[in-house]
Design a protein that fits this description.
The protein is of the alpha/beta class. The chain is built from 14 helices and 16 strands. A hairpin with a 5-residue loop joins strand 15 and strand 16. Helix 3 packs antiparallel against helix 10, helix 7 packs parallel to helix 8 and helix 13 packs across helix 14. The structure holds ligand PLZ.
Length: 446
């Protein structure tokens, strides 16, 4: 494999001629409903760089949406994948099981916080992990209602999109949605639904959410509360202190299964194995995917043994779920996080984000808020600082400018006014700063 040099180098206009040709073919072959952030086709990737088919080297501040925490084609992951692929590629764990699945379950059972006995089940994606967490919670409690939050994203399957907050593009035209799903306010300190200050938002929104569960749904009817400990697609929102703790206490009092959706913020992204660890909460179930497989598709549900074991034999599974190649990749990725000290790397990236991006709030009228949680960061744009009017165009302009100059970054937020930064945790510091400088200039030019 040719080495991918860790620097930004733009040789053609972006997208280049070969990418433009492929885009034409794509238009004729792939439905328009599959959106594209940047019309540049990949040829190779490693560390913090994606090389496109025209030979341009782009800085990756998206990591394939928080997937490539250990980097693309990490040698240890690639070696584990090829060894497993050469031994056997599939048997179906439900037909003839294999050790890798069990070994990965053991790893996750011990990594999820809390001194409780756990079990893990593997699927193919984050959405499927969420679906199965809800199935387990309903089976274990004998209840039907499920609560989710404002600004949430949980996938594109029927239950996933029903739990997801945003109508367009995720739910529009796809109804009817699943029944028995209720939505509660999330603590979003910059836009507190209870009108509280930054510091008071956590307890204020928790109180609102708990009153709704108690008075409108009935705590004894709720099977599961599904929550992202940090919003991802919703715009890297870190809930106010006390929010998750209060919800968890209510769940415990009322026999509700607390599901932490760690698909995006988990697996070392925020400087902890799981983002819920920034609070003191011990979740009943954790869903994982994205970073878990080191770039290969796998989703996990890790939960308290008594909940997971409540489901009848044959009630859970999937043909490919926990495929042996994906399990091998995930085991190698976990080892990479440990041996390369990627939890610490995520903290360091967070410090760089804070140092570089926080001053933008003072300097630029269009920047309403900057949020950082480890190697997850967001800039939220507003057209009127006082009214906090979302400015979608400013976010689009900053992203367009980044993309033109070879920096991959993502949009987020219910109002499409947030630029989100999620680099691979193995990105070099110089490269990261080069990418951030491109972005900062674009912000200052607004
Ligand atoms: N839960 C918290 O962030 C996926 C969505 C990309 P899948 N987020 C990226 C897109 O446009 O579809 C996500 C998430 C959280 C669940 C999911 C769903 O994970 O692996 O995409 O199904």
């Amino acid at each position: 494999m040719a080495e991918v040099r860790q620097r930004r180098e733009i040789l053609t206009e972006l997208p280049g001629p070969r990418s433009r040709q492929l885009m034409e073919r794509r238009r004729a072959a792939v439905p328009a409903g599959v959106g594209i952030t940047m019309p540049v086709f990949a040829a190779a990737a490693a560390g913090g760089v994606v090389v496109d088919v025209d030979g341009n080297s782009l800085i990756d501040l998206g990591a394939g949406i928080a997937v490539l925490n250990v980097g693309s084609a990490a040698p240890a992951v690639a070696a584990a994948v090829s060894a497993q692929a050469a031994a056997f590629t599939h048997t179906c764990f439900q037909v003839t099981p294999y050790e890798g699945y069990v070994a990965l379950a053991e790893q996750l059972n011990s990594l999820v916080p809390g001194e409780v006995e756990r079990r893990s089940l593997f699927l193919n994606s984050g959405a499927e992990a969420v679906e199965n967490a809800v199935k387990v919670a309903r089976s274990a409690t004998g209840r039907q209602a499920v609560v989710a939050f404002d600004h949430a994203f949980h996938g594109r399957t029927l239950m996933g999109m029903t739990l997801t907050a945003k109508a367009a593009p995720y739910k529009r035209a796809f109804g009817p949605l699943a029944p028995e799903v209720y939505r509660l306010p999330y603590s979003y300190p910059y836009r507190c639904a209870a009108g509280a200050s930054y510091d008071e938002c956590g307890p204020a929104c928790a109180e609102m959410a708990i009153t709704m569960m108690d008075r409108q749904i009935g705590g004894d009817r709720i099977a599961a509360l599904v929550v992202e400990p940090v919003l991802g697609e919703g715009g890297v929102v870190v809930p106010g202190e006390g929010f998750l703790e209060a919800l968890s206490a209510y769940c415990e009092e009322n026999g509700i299964v607390f599901v932490a959706d760690e698909v995006q913020a988990g697996f070392a992204r925020t400087g902890k194995w799981f983002s819920i660890e920034h609070s003191g909460v011990v979740p009943d179930i954790v869903t994982t995917a994205k970073g878990l497989g080191g770039g290969l598709p796998i989703g996990g549900v890790t939960g308290r043994a008594e909940l997971m074991d409540s489901v009848h034999p044959g009630g859970l599974g999937s043909t490919f779920g926990g495929n042996p190649v994906c399990c091998a990749a995930a085991l190698a990725a976990i080892e990479e996080v440990r041996s390369k000290e990627l939890l610490q790397a995520a903290w360091r990236i967070g410090e760089i984000f804070s140092a570089r991006l926080r001053p933008l709030v003072e300097e630029c009228a269009a920047v309403g808020d900057v949020r950082v949680r480890g190697a997850m960061a967001a800039i939220e744009f507003v057209s009127d600082r006082k009214a906090r009017t979302p400015d979608q165009r400013a976010a689009s302009r900053v992203l367009a400018s980044c993309h033109e100059q070879g920096v991959i970054a993502l949009k987020a937020g219910t109002f499409d006014n947030v630029v989100r930064i999620l680099p691979p945790l193995v990105i070099g510091e110089e490269l990261l700063i080069d990418g951030l400088e491109v972005m900062e200039k674009a912000v200052r030019a607004l």
